[in-house]
Amino acid sequence: MKILILGFGYSAGAFARELKALEPEGAIVGTVRHAEKAAELEATGVQPFIFDGDTASAELLEALASATHLLVSVPPDGEGDPVLRALGPAIAQAKTLQWIGYLSTVGVYGDFGGAWIDETAPCQPVNPRSQMRVRVEGEWRDLARQKTLPLLILRLAGIYGPGRSGFNKLRNGTARRINKPGQVFNRIHVADIGRITALAALRGLDGTFNLSDNHPAPPQEVMAHAAELLGVPTPPEVSFAEAEMTPMARSFYQDNKRVCSTAILRALSTELQFSTYREGLAAVLAEEQSLKFTQL
């Protein structure tokens, strides 16, 4: 296996670590936007390439031409998918490619008033970012059909893990418990993203799947539990109507749904390592306190 990861960020780093454990002989290469990040990546044993979303170097095109598996973790911009714009023709011509994975978001579904949904639910996104995701998912399906390749579209819930959780805001004193009655959010631990995506790549899984911990919960409840684990006072509760928030942060509250991810667990005959935020946050805190966490 030769894996090319386009957009080597937080989730892709977890994927690479799991893949190394499951397939030690596989070669992993990845793209980052800046030279400093490339040096960090190289230190972990992953060959880095610089890709700014506009132009692809000859070296990156050569790596793509010999890749067997492709994982795309680059979000769309206002005009579409930077990867397809810059690399679409090269991907279409890649002769050794056996599988493509695309990391998307459960935001493509839009608002369902807190009801449970699965992959059969229609996509009715309410914000421009998620509307663009729907369009880009379709473009990746078109490319995969053209090449007759298996394509995994993995719709991720809100990502948390070491270095990226409510503990950060609790430590720096910016945590709030925002209450919008009836609102829930879906979450997934980054370690489960890494393991599930790695298994899917190794098995050539095809299809569109959700990945959520199946335990959606109100944000104020999760923050209160994080404070309890950390041993600090619970932040005050603020009503959503009165909370000062950026337009981006406020937009996340437009979607209210409970996302089921049973389908991918059945397809891979596996289970989540962290089935609720309670187990997940406990593991995050233990890892951060052990000082063993290194963010790629």
Q: Approximately how much beta-strand content do the residues carry?
A: 15-25%
List the uncertain runs.
none
Give the helices and strands as they follow along the chain. Answer: EHEHEHEHEEHEEHEEHEHEHEHH
Count the E strands.
13
* Rounded mean pLDDT score: 94
Shape-level CATH architecture of the domain at 2-160 and 186-214 and 260-267? 3-Layer(aba) Sandwich
The SS-based structural class is alpha/beta
Compute the CA-based radius of gyration. 19 Å
- CATH class category label of the domain at 2-160 and 186-214 and 260-267: Alpha Beta
> What is the spatial order of strands in the main beta sheet?
3-2-1-4-5-7-11
Shape descriptor:
globular
Task: Describe this protein with a few key phrases.
296 residues; alpha/beta; Rossmann fold; seven-stranded parallel β-sheet; 11 helices
